[in-house]
Amino acid sequence: MEEFVVLVDPKDNVLGLMEKQQAHVNGLLHRAFSVFLFNTKGEMLLQKRAKGKYHSPLKWTNTVCSHPKNGESYHQGAVRRLKEELGIQTDLTEKFHFIYKADVGGGLWEHELDHIFIGTFEDEFSFNPDEVAEVRYISFEDLDKEISENPENFTEWFKIILEEYKHHF
To answer: Residue 1: which pLDDT band, with cuts at 50, 70 and 90?
Structure first.
């Protein structure tokens, strides 16, 4: 089944729809969201992308990152993908949004108007193996060390979003 992203201008005015992979080939600006969940110790929940993902497979990234469907709000999309990928339902709060562009290899680009949501979660969950290979909680200190020592183990967009996140908190 083809998936489409919502193409936008920098002010979030809708320009149309495009098949997701084609938008990534063309590097066109589209809507996205990123979710950061934390446990009560302040550790971030990371996911390792499934082996079958068409780009950035088996790389660590934030809890969830994806695209709202046409007619779906950023928040609705974030709630939906959190449930689809990790089986998690929790309250999410939008904190900020920004635009970035990242070369993700293989002639593909992520060029996104990204809305960042945060929440707390420390309960049982089961991830979808078609989406997620592994999950873990990590402290900011350990995460910074891992990214510094092995940046190739993390998605390009996560490294950008994490730096932006740190500027807001």
So the answer is: low
